[in-house]
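Slide 14.
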Amino acid sequence: MLVVENLHVSYGHIQALSGVSITVPQGSIVSIIGSNGAGKTTLLNTISGLVKQHQGGIKFKGQELGWVPHSIVQQGIVQVPEGRKIFAGLTVEENLLAGGYILRDPKHLRSNVNKMMELYPILGSRKHQQAGTLSGGEQQMLAVCRGLMSEPELILLDEPSLGLAPIIVKSIFDLIGQIRQQGITVLLVEQNAKKALALSDYAYVLENGHVTMEGKGRDLLCDPAVKRAYLGEKE
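Slide 15: predicted structure.
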């Protein structure tokens, strides 16, 4: 579904990505793990059109992906950014409506709002509440559901569990599994490497802008080097 080939991205004189290539098959969950500053968010931002590459290509469903963010959303790719970035001053319902801005039919839009509230019922019970007053976990659920409002074929999740309590982290990963069950492909950047690898069909390790390892998620979960570097385990 998504093919990134030989991607190079720089911020001024700083090389953020150097020859990164990944493949995300349709219907899969693919994870990107790595230390802070490895280039994980830059990779997602480049796919979303927020950052422009200097070299390399990105294809989605066999076609070159454009570079205009709203056009990329219309093509079926949505990013849920790190830090949630919900509209704190808007209600839960208004946040969801904003996420479906590309839908032209009001009935279709309303139907999707109802689906999101069924997916995570607390959003329905708090639909008139300002989003900024929700807990961190509830805001993250709202951010993901807002991303789903436009009916993406591929969703990019950037650190969805960051800063959340363990019980909420479990809910987040349960939701990611539900997303895949709905037929939506997931590209996941996640600092909780253990949970990400356990859930993923395939994964890549990104370090200093380079892919240093790749393989099936559960294979990398058992790899001694991954255990030492990302899981806090010793051989």
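Speaker note: Residues 166-181 form the longest helix (16 residues).
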